[in-house]
Amino acid sequence: MTPSFASQAACGTTPPQDAAPAGQAPAGIPYPKAIKSFVRRAGRTTAAQAKAFADQGPRFLLPYSAAPLDAATAFGREAPLILEIGFGMGEATAHIARVRPGDNFLCCEVHEPGVGALLKRIGEHGIENIRILQHDAVEVLDHMLPPGSLDGVHIFFPDPWHKKKHNKRRLIQPPLVAKLAARLKPGGYLHCATDWQPYAEQMLEVLGGEPLLANTADGYAPQPAYRPLTKFENRGLRLGHGVWDLVFMRRDLEDSIPPPEPTAR
Ligand SMILES: C[S@@+](CC[C@H](N)C(=O)[O-])C[C@H]1O[C@@H](n2cnc3c(N)ncnc32)[C@H](O)[C@@H]1O
User: Fold this and answer.
1) How far apart are CA 160 and CA 171, in angstroms?
2) Ligand 1 proximity of 213 Cβ (cutoff 6 Å)
3) pTM score of the predicted model
4) Residue 115 falls within a domain, yes or no?
């Protein structure tokens, strides 16, 4: 899908006075000020997508609630939990769920036709291991996913917010990355991809600066086999655009905390 560059509403990126420790939502604030990484785009839900909402919605859509998610109940089984932020029309999401049947995929998107499109793919392919939250992923992270609850995070082609004055709306910034890292289990991974070189450079800098994460590659990573080339990406590649993957792994806290200095006697 093509990124949205619609006009911006003011967004609250100023940390609240009572900011909580990195990776935790401030106590008692149900909707903390956070990155507004999207604008709700107008877009028509097709008849086929509306039918998919009716047919698949009751089973595969999860309600947003400001309470920790019981993933085993939501998916009907215990399995590694992968969060995807912003799946667009769900082309890559459906492919990955099919090639990794042993994992549970919790997928957030705010664009209604995109949610309908993924529900349609779920029905067409008999996919069982996806659940969709049609909600701001930042609020999902803050309120539904406790620290250490995720085995992986996918953020593919997040809106690049090209203009300098809009860069603050990018998802990959230190506060959100700290939250993501805190929600990963040690050994879990964060996989980002972008086709916008300045954003790729920002990703490398921000992910590289997060103390809880370690790069799995020397710089950008080779494209993992599970991530397909989507129509959108193929079009970009034909036009000569680059694509950059980044795969970072959550460190074990034990490894990242230096031993205490010996005390002088
Ligand atoms: C440029 S599109 C990329 C979609 C898809 N990952 C792909 O590769 O084609 C980015 C998507 O992220 C969604 N998005 C942005 N911020 C989000 C957020 N905080 N929560 C949920 N979805 C978000 C947008 O609605 C949009 O559909």
Assistant:
1) 9
2) no
3) 0.86
4) yes
**CATH number, domain with residue 208:** 3.40.50.150
Within the chain, which residues score under 70 in pLDDT? 1-34, 255-260, 262-265
In this structure, is the dihedral angle defined by the CA atoms of residues 188, 193, 196 and 200, taken in order, positive or negative?
A: positive
pLDDT of residue 261: 74
Mutate to test the pocket of ligand 1, among 40, 110, 245 (most ligand atoms within 8 A of CB): 110
Q: Could you tell me the distance, in angstroms and rounded to a whole number, from the CA of residue 18 to the centre of ligand 1?
A: 29
Nearest to 157 by CA among 62, 251, 235: 235
167 located within any domain: yes
Domain count, the chain: 1
Q: Is 55 a catalytic residue?
A: no
Query: Which pair of structure tokens corresponds to residue 31?
Result: 């909707």
Domain span at 250: 69-256
Task: Report yes or no: 166 and 8 within 8 Å, Cβ to Cβ.
Answer: yes
Residue 40 lies in a domain: no
Ligand 1 site, residue 1, Cβ cutoff 6 A: yes
